[in-house]
Design a protein that fits this description.
The chain is α/β, with parallel strands linked by helices. The protein has helices at 19-32, 53-70, 88-93, 119-128, 142-146, 149-156, 174-185, 202-205, 207-218, 220-235, and strands at 2-3, 36-39, 42-43, 75-78, 81-83, 105-109, 132-136, 160-164, 191-193.
Length: 257
């Protein structure tokens, strides 16, 4: 499998807290079947999570060196998880952030509980510049949970969607789990990823349950497409073909919190 969303670079955001923890995370990743991991540290302008590419490179080299020492046989790539911002094109041009493996694909996140003004304008601008926004964990956003029609709008404008594997276990609450299951069953996702931050992540203890639960909903062939085939296309900068599905026809009622 290939993970396109992780926080395994130490001391750079809210992910790994040490080089030792980064190694422990990667050992766990290898154990459950990941051979390639994309490190995507947060870039949130105006916060402490704005590690520049020089810092990322230094820390990443330390991790790669220890991987060789441990003969772990896992490959690392780099990108950013970028908080939506009008200035993303400027950050890319100034090399403050990078796309996934220096491809046209960029991982973008939104605020979890608040409205984003001019969201579509910002995404359209990225598309006009030739980038393909991959929306991180849409199942976690309140505006998605309240109206699934937004998913078709995002897909229709050329964005792609990445779900977090552990939401099948309700890691971020019932509404996120409900949205995650809906999106799986209705083929809205193009990727599933870990979004792992720490070695204690429930993914490692319960991966068998996670994988079995997802395969029950979508089948093994689609599970492989979302965790291996499509991520491989991203790393090679190849196009992703969307699964043909009926559009969402109405607002979907969700569980109350």
């Amino acid at each position: 499998m290939i993970d396109i969303h992780s926080h395994i670079i130490h001391n750079i955001d809210d992910g790994s807290r040490s080089l030792e923890e980064s190694l422990a995370i990667l050992k766990n990743m290898k154990k459950i079947g990941f051979d390639i991991v994309v490190a995507t540290p947060h870039y949130i302008a105006g916060t402490s999570f704005v590690a520049d590419n020089k810092a990322k490179s230094t820390h990443l080299k330390q991790i790669k060196d220890i991987i060789l020492q441990e003969e772990l046989n896992i490959n690392l790539c780099v990108g950013n998880e970028i908080f939506i911002d009008h200035d993303i094109p400027k950050y890319l041009e100034e090399n403050k952030i990078v796309s996934i493996n220096k491809t046209k694909y960029i991982l973008v996140e939104f605020p979890r509980n608040t409205q984003v003004f001019h969201l579509m304008d910002m995404l359209f601008e990225l598309r006009d510049l030739g980038y393909v926004p991959i929306i991180a964990h849409p199942e976690r956003y309140l505006f998605v949970q309240e109206d699934y029609l937004i998913l078709d709008q995002l897909l229709g404008m050329g964005c792609l969607l990445q779900g977090n594997l552990t939401n099948i276990l309700g890691k971020y609450g019932k509404s996120a789990e409900k949205a995650f299951r809906y999106m799986l069953k209705n083929h809205k996702y193009q990727f599933l990823a870990t979004d792992v931050h720490h070695e204690s992540d429930i993914l490692f203890k319960h991966f068998s349950k996670v994988k079995t639960g997802i395969i029950r909903l979508i089948g093994e062939e689609e599970f492989n497409r979302l965790t291996l085939e499509n991520p491989a296309k991203v790393l090679k900068n190849e196009p992703i073909v969307l699964t043909e599905v009926a559009p969402t026809s109405k607002k979907i009622k969700i569980w109350k919190k």
